[in-house]
Amino acid sequence: MLSRFSTRRRFSQLSEQEVLALAISSEEDDSKIYRGFAAKLRDDFPATAKIFEGMAIEEEGHAQRLIDLHRTRFGDTIPLIRREHVAEYYSRKPVWLTETLSLDEIRNQAAEMERAAQRYYEAAARRSTDADTRALLNRLAAEEAGHELAAEELADTHLTEDAVAAENETAHRQFVLTWVQPGLAGLMDGSVSTLAPIFAAAFATQDTWQTFQVGLAASVGAGISMGFTEAASDDGQLSGRGAAWKRGVASGVMTALGGLGHALPYLIPHFWTATIIAAIVVFVELWTIAWIQNKYMDTPFFRAALQVVLGGALVLAAGVLIGAG
Question: What pTM does this model have?
Answer without folding.
Answer: 0.52
